[in-house]
Design a protein that fits this description.
homohexamer; alpha/beta; Arginase, Chain A; 10 strands
Chain lengths: 283, 283, 283, 283, 283, 283
């Protein structure tokens, strides 16, 4: 008898009960204000993952040796932001309740809010490490509070001052930079230079790691809706991610804002796959 | 002294007070469930309009002889559907109040709802002539009532049975076709064959003409989010539009669902520009 | 507990034991002599199938009412043609043995040979109805006997004279046309005009229906490696397929030569999905 | 000893002295006012010609049986229109002097002027048959007399009234249509309906056949700088070209305005190759 | 009453009389010898500018605080190089006469010649700082003196020896490098290493800053007609531009050779927008 | 009399008997397991080579001063791997026999095997210097021994232990890295850091230099079938190639895996052309 067609990210074939990590996709980009397309990110990553290997020469580890379960994409309601965020929160909460780590693939960055709600419910002392080109600290965007441009501001409302660490930021309104500098978040502009001391502070603390892939320079990651020149390199991002995983207790993570159609040659999607492999191996 | 940069659709340089027709863009595609990008339609049409001429050899008329004002694009809030529809309704209402005809460029098809509200407020006897590949008659889409897939159903709630005439429909759920056939709308599948008798019925009546450009066959119009093979040709659509304008009292109109990035060669945008020219000349 | 990620063609969610029809993909294009990329056809069709509906207004039927199982793609060895064809033959043979009809998604046209072998083993009186722009009747191509350009010639070696009916052919070497005209195959150039009388002859006979999608005019189907102007329209092809299913005993079928990357706007993939839906409903 | 790399259009391998027809490319698009790229037309056609066959099932003839020489592309000076036209005229004149027929591959349509000069010098009674979407009858374009938009007007200055027959025209300024209708040219709008009676008039006369490929509907030929919806089909154009060749004395011909990068899937280039094959076989 | 559609570069909404800086576009690429498309640069930059912010975290300044007027694009005659350059010169001269700084958006690099003529007329002691991959020092290109490949040579004819400083050059004919090395221009190959000492020399002097964006490595700027591997990074270029503005008297500037269609993902256009923002803030 | 159309890589116009270096293309990608398209590499390089110059400012040398002959592309049989490799071997053997150096343009990396066979037959002491992202050391790939993923393993069967030096490797199965580390090959992961000491060892020895262009970071070279983030820069690769040429006796070389359609903007092809120019000048 033949099998039904199953498609998972490469090397993520564990049974759910054995899995330490559970992948899910949040294919949503309804509030994207510029170029949409991040909704196609998770599906593209699964398909293109077969262009990379399960083995990492960076960490000398293999996905075949760890247990990851890929639970597929949520079906989210475009045009109904609140219900979409609720569905994301529920999925993350189930995974956390079952003692596993959720790794979410966006989608636009707003989806992080749903997963942070679930993680904060479980870990009252949650901190966020945020890699991004954009500050995402607006109070509203054309009147909308639930917008990708406001997502870290909304997370701050849950966690409060001093719990969010931002790196690589190189775009925002003047007021966002001002607001951050008033002690709301710890913001490192442009690069990761202060990451080591941050990680010293966060040692052993529960951390939600959210990576807006546009923190990368567009030369390496052009497949995103709002490319910002002057970003970090893949290797800088890779080592930053590995460091966060090694020195804090990452309880949940996400990769966001891959819009595959904007880089039809596929380099951006391939990079995202490789980064996901490294993240899964490092968790 | 130099002029500020002004960009209008070709031949639409009349003063507002002289204009009989007022163009505006509704660059919104937040509820699009498949491939987004219709938000870029109106801007693309303005830019590409300079590849066509103001003169129509089909009607032997010239845009230079009529008075059209291009009021530009609305700035609509992605992720806040209700406020976006309110802004559209307001713009259309102002134009109608000033005794001019609004011609709206979408955006996804949901934007029609805003303009229909304004037109129906002015014309209680309003009828809709609807050219589309999709029935757009769902009651909700993944729980959302304000979705592109429900727009004609929402319009029906305003106008009631027997006031909506659909042509070219070749896609939908079984329940949509059933619902229509119960006397809700007059639906002609696949083509325009019954248009002449419909127009006889509608002679002299106020009509809102809404054109989802995916009524065209994808061979001629691939630049749209949900292409459906088996559609009408450009010339069939052109003559259908000219007939509606000639035989009824079109009080408002729209062209929707051009997603220019999906046809980077530009043929779809050029076709939409040409159809808009013909519509403006025929109104 | 969460489900593993399953991805099937829309509406093909039946259990294997209940299924009357079994889909499988043959993502192979190793002998393609011009533009490769057909290997990505089946996966693209599954993903894009969610842009169409399960209901057909052409046949007034719904995929939800019939039982189709999608067994996913074979993993075929590029660069080892014989083993690839063997794997295809095996998959088709299992499905046929279980009393179900295989519907194969290519891949280049050579994959047909594997499935025809399986079907001919079961049905000694098998006939082939072949829709294509190209004759595919070469004896060899640069010395290779197992090439997409030779696939119908190889099928002829199995079935013999007078068992193959070709329609829509508009490209080939002079010698291919000559060879066909010597009674080897019944070839209708350019269109389907003689299809009705062919179907009268084939009434009740077991038929393998193979559709090289480049039989379509490139205006409607540009996403293929060797587009040939002057082809048939979607509606002509649709009705031809429906006729074949209605008037003969189609025991197996395939759709080939969609190369989705060559039509990045997606119209070709969407058309292929729609044709597959209609084929499944008609079988 | 190895051969130098030679690249000709498929089947055009005759020796110069034996050739009846000589191909050359005029890769120039310097005056293109909208989307440039026609300069890459001839090179693309050579490369893609290996996707078609030398045999025509339409005419049952084979390029292998006739003698065509491909003399490659001229190196034309961008930004110096006069010298570019001079170089084209010289190449055409040499070919004509040697008793062969020049077939030129543009480039933008302005290149026709150079070849028409050479043909008119040899054939004082020259007529032009012109297939195009655009009238190309402007007296100047932003002050420039040597522009693609003026090319037929410039040819008229050489040939005078009543010697130019235009077909398929569906775009232009009002003044161009007026000017034509004053007896300057014989213009058939939109299609080829009056071609048969024109050819009766032109029987036995020396004809320059110039084909701006945008006469085709953009559904079949999107790879051109100024696509105009509502054009003719490939088969209509094919049979029109065959008729002109069969019923008049075509002394020179050209195919223009293929801009291959605007149709990256390759259908437009493939169509142009096929049309060129048929033209060469018909001459 | 509604406003006419106005489209300016983001944050450039000052009144003309208040403006210190005036933007204008020179959408011309008629002499481009390889891949054209730079004509679409200025329009693309305006449209895409809404993907960046008005605030610069690099300079901690905001476009909202300075006064820039965007006077739109010139309408230049393709195929008539002299008249195009005259129109550019006139526009620049008006702006300079009114005591404002012109910032021109190309177009191909030849447009610089028009603006340099205007600037040199006003500032007899004008110097040029030139960032580019290509030397642009040919005396002629296929006979044409007014070609993008000759533009700096033509500027040298106006300014004479020792007034032109070139950086980043990594392509040209041997004779161009020789000619420069004979004291004609000061040329720094590959990078900006000698920029500081140059700026010391130029302190207080009137400078025309011309940036051919292909000085950037194609990894960051692939949207240009002649990409040359081995270029500078965005940050290197950014700081070089800021230094020139800080340490000399930049009286006019331009950014050239963005061909947006060659980087459809939009990273190149976004980078150009960001660089323009920084340039405007630094002037 | 006119010349036949000849198309060679820029500056490679020497007569065969005078040439020291002979170029040929091996347009084959039949075993490519992910994205095909490398078959179009050599043709694209010839066409795009006219966007670069013959002069190198890096080496201060000019192609016009050396003697290179371009013998065009082999016509290889897709789907028949063995015969394709035989044809490649023959071409390389002829060139070597005539006392010239073959430089081959792939195609997928498997083509290297054919040329290595010819070079090893002539030079029993042959060593390979291998720049690549992928180890290419699998014993088989889905059962196929002749696959791009196995090519260096196959070369090892010819040359034996300690004769192959790999650089830049950052992808492979764990077993490949293990196998290499058992003394089979000398593998430097990620970069060229140990190249100098390798070249000291190889001084004066006959070397086959094989460059899989995906050793480059995808930011600079996205036009390849399997992009791997974290690669070397163009300048690093350029200087590595120059060093190998300067310090060993390179008897044959190849550049592989350019798939031009995956980088339609052309930067990857332009880079490959530039690297080839530098390689030819350095040999």
């Amino acid at each position: 008898m033949l099998n039904r067609n199953i498609e998972t990210f490469i090397g993520c074939g564990a049974a759910y009960r054995d899995a330490k990590i559970v992948l899910f996709g949040a294919p949503y980009d309804s509030t994207t204000s510029f170029r949409p397309g991040a909704r196609f990110g998770p599906r593209a990553m699964r398909g293109e993952s077969f262009g990379i290997e399960t083995y990492s020469p960076y960490q000398d580890k293999d996905l075949e040796d760890i247990a990851v379960f890929d639970s597929g994409d949520l079906e989210l309601s475009f045009g109904d932001v609140k219900s979409a965020l609720r569905d994301i929160e529920k999925r993350a909460a189930v995974i956390i309740k079952d003692g596993k780590k959720p790794v979410m693939l966006g989608g636009e960055h707003l989806v992080t809010l749903g997963a942070v709600r679930a993680a904060a419910a479980k870990h009252p002392d949650l901190h966020i490490v945020h890699f991004d080109a954009h500050a995402d600290l607006r109070d509203d965007y054309l009147g909308a509070k639930l917008s990708h441009a406001c997502v870290i501001r909304r997370c701050h409302e849950i966690l409060g001052d001093g719990r969010i660490y931002q790196f690589g930021i190189r775009s925002g309104e003047r007021s966002e930079f001002r607001w951050a500098s008033e002690g709301r978040t710890a913001m490192r502009k442009f690069d990761f230079e202060t990451l080591p001391e941050t990680l010293t502070k966060l040692a052993g603390k529960p951390v939600y790691l959210t990576v807006d892939l546009d923190v990368l320079d567009p030369s390496q990651f052009s497949g995103t809706g709002t490319p910002e020149a002057g970003g970090v390199s893949f290797l800088e991002l890779l080592y930053a991610v590995l460091e966060v995983c090694a020195r804090t207790d990452v309880v949940a993570a996400d990769l966001n804002e891959l819009a595959p159609a904007l880089d039809p040659g596929g380099s951006s999607t391939a990079l995202a796959c490789k980064l996901l492999r490294e993240l899964l191996l490092a968790l």
